[in-house]
C-alpha cells in the first residue's frame, strides 16, 4: 500500500475548519445586513424629514396660498409639475399625476470607475393640495461634496467594526476549543475502554461516558463482543462434542479392526468376521451422522421445524438401537464388576434417528463410565427410555469431568432435547443417576 495515501483528518481539525468557515460567513453576512439596514435607515430618515416638511407646507398653504415655498440647503419646494427641474422630471416621470401623497428616491451612479459608486441621491415627495395643485419637495444630495466626510465615516466604521469582528472570532474560536476539549474526552475514554474490553469483563457494568450516543455505541460494542463470544463458544462446543461423541465409534472401529485382522487369519471364523465388519460399518455411519448432527446443533435455528429441514424422520426399532449402543459401549465395562440389565418392550417410533442415537448413547455411556461396580438398568417401554446406574464401589467417582460423563455428555443431551422438545429428566440418586427420556412428543 502506498505511503502517500491520504490520512483521515482528526475530528478536532475538521471542527476547527468548519468553525472558521461558519464564523467568516457570519461576519460577512452581518456586514451585509448592517450595510443594508444602514442605507435603509438613511432613506427612512430622509423620508421622515420630507414628510414632516411637506405636511407643514400643506397646512400653511391651506391658510395662505401665497405661503412661500421651502428653499433651504436641505429641501427645495416646487408647486406644479412644470416647475420641477428637468433632471427630476426625467427620473420621476410617474409623479406628474398623483392623487395621494407619494414618495420615492433614486441614486445616480458613476460609470468611469471599476467599482460603481453613487455620485448623487435624489429624494422626492409629491402631495396633492386642496386647490388641485401638487406640491413637490425634493432633496438632492451631491455625494462628491461629502467625500471627505464619508471617507472619515467609513474609516471610523472600519475602526469600530473590525475589532468587534476580531473579538467575535476569538471568542468563537476559544468557545469551540473548550467545547472540543469537553466532548473529545469521552471519545478517548470509550477508545481506551473498547481496547481493554475482553470476554472476561464484557459483562461488567458499562462506564458512564456522559453522552447518550457514546453509551449506545458502548452497548453495541458489548453486544458485538458477546455475539463473537457466542460464536466462539459454539465452535468450541462443536469441537468438544465431536471429540466426545466420536470416541466410541473410533474405539469400536479400532477394536474391531484388530479383531478382524486376527479373524481373517483363520478361515473358520467367517461369522465373527462378518460381525466385526458390521460393527465397523455401523461405527463409520454413526460418525458420519454424529458429525452432521453436531453441525446442525451448532446452527442458529432452535425449533423442531428448523431441524426437520436438516434431518429426516425415520421409523426406528428402539430396542435394536439400544442393543447396538450397549454393545458399542461394552468396552467401558472391561475389568469392571457391572451387571447390565435390559428390560425392553418392543417399541417402534418415528423419530429423528441421529439425535435420538446421540441422546441414548450419552446416557448409556455415562452409566457405563461412572459405574465402577454395581448394576446398570436400561428400560424401554411405550416410547420411554429409562437409564439407571447403581454404583456400589467404595471409591469416589469424579462426575465433573468435561471429557466423558456428566460434564460434556449431559450438556449435549440437554441441548438436543431442548431443540427437539423431548421430555427429559436426569436426577441424582444414591450411588448413581436415573435418566428418563420420553420421545412421544416427537411421534
Automatic annotation (TrEMBL):
- GO molecular function, one example? phosphorelay sensor kinase activity
Any idea which UniProt keywords this protein has?
ATP-binding, Cell membrane, Kinase, Membrane, Nucleotide-binding, Phosphoprotein, Transferase, Transmembrane, Transmembrane helix, Two-component regulatory system
A Pfam family of the record is: HisKA
Catalytic activity from the UniProt record? ATP + protein L-histidine = ADP + protein N-phospho-L-histidine
- List, for all copies, the residue spans of the domain called Histidine kinase: 241-443
Membrane topology of the entry: Multi-pass membrane protein
- Please name the top-level EC class of this enzyme: transferase
Q: Please list every transmembrane segment annotated in the UniProt record, as residue ranges.
A: 21-39, 160-180
Q: What is its main location?
A: membrane
Q: Does the keyword Nucleotide-binding apply?
A: yes
Give GO cellular component annotations, separated by semicolons: plasma membrane
Q: From what superkingdom does this record's organism come?
A: Bacteria
* Enzyme Commission (EC) number: 2.7.13.3
What are the subcellular locations of this protein?
Answer: Cell membrane
- Record PANTHER family: SENSOR HISTIDINE KINASE CPXA (PTHR45528)
User: What is this protein identified as?
Assistant: histidine kinase
Amino acid at each position: 500500500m502506498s505511503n502517500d495515501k491520504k490520512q483521515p483528518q482528526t475530528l478536532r481539525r475538521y471542527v476547527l475548519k468548519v468553525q472558521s468557515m461558519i464564523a467568516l460567513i457570519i461576519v460577512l453576512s452581518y456586514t451585509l445586513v448592517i450595510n443594508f439596514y444602514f442605507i435603509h435607515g438613511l432613506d427612512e430618515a430622509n423620508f421622515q424629514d420630507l414628510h414632516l416638511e411637506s405636511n407643514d407646507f400643506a397646512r400653511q398653504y391651506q391658510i395662505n396660498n401665497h405661503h412661500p415655498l421651502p428653499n433651504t440647503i436641505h429641501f427645495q419646494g416646487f408647486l406644479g409639475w412644470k416647475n420641477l427641474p428637468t433632471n427630476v422630471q426625467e427620473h420621476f416621470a410617474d409623479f406628474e399625476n398623483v392623487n395621494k401623497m407619494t414618495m420615492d428616491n433614486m441614486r445616480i451612479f458613476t460609470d468611469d470607475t471599476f467599482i460603481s459608486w453613487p455620485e448623487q441621491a435624489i429624494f422626492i415627495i409629491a402631495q396633492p393640495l386642496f386647490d388641485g395643485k401638487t406640491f413637490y419637495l425634493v432633496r438632492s444630495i451631491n455625494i462628491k461634496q461629502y467625500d471627505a466626510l464619508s471617507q472619515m465615516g467609513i474609516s471610523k466604521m472600519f475602526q469600530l467594526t473590525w475589532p468587534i469582528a476580531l473579538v467575535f472570532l476569538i471568542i468563537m474560536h476559544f468557545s469551540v476549543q473548550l467545547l472540543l476539549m469537553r466532548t473529545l474526552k469521552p471519545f478517548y475514554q470509550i477508545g481506551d475502554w473498547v481496547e481493554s474490553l475482553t470476554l472476561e469483563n464484557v459483562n461488567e457494568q458499562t462506564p458512564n461516558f456522559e453522552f447518550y450516543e457514546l453509551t449506545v455505541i458502548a452497548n453495541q460494542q458489548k453486544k458485538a463482543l458477546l455475539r463473537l463470544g457466542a460464536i466462539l463458544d459454539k465452535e468450541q462446543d462443536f469441537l468438544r462434542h465431536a471429540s466426545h461423541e466420536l470416541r466410541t465409534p473410533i474405539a469400536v472401529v479400532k477394536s474391531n479392526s484388530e479383531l478382524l485382522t486376527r479373524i481373517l487369519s483363520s478361515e473358520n471364523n467367517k461369522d465373527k468376521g462378518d460381525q466385526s465388519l458390521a460393527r465397523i460399518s455401523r461405527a463409520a455411519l454413526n460418525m458420519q451422522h454424529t458429525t452432521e448432527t453436531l453441525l446442525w446443533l451448532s446452527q442458529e435455528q432452535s425449533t423442531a421445524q428448523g431441524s426437520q429441514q436438516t434431518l429426516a424422520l425415520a421409523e426406528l426399532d428402539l430396542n435394536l438401537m439400544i442393543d447396538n449402543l450397549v454393545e458399542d459401549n461394552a468396552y467401558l465395562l472391561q475389568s469392571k464388576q457391572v451387571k447390565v440389565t435390559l428390560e425392553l418392550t418392543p417399541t417402534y417410533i418415528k423419530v429423528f434417528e441421529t439425535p435420538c442415537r446421540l441422546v441414548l448413547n450419552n446416557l448409556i455411556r455415562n452409566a457405563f463410565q461412572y459405574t465402577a461396580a454395581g448394576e446398570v438398568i436400561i428400560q424401554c417401554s411405550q416410547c420411554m427410555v429409562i437409564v439407571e446406574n447403581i454404583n456400589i464401589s467404595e471409591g469416589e467417582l469424579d462426575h465433573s469431568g468435561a471429557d466423558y460423563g456428566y460434564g460434556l455428555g449431559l450438556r449435549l443431551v440437554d441441548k438436543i432435547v431442548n431443540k427437539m422438545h423431548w421430555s427429559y429428566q436426569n436426577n441424582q440418586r444414591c450411588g448413581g443417576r436415573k435418566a428418563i427420556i420420553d420421545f412421544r412428543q416427537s411421534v
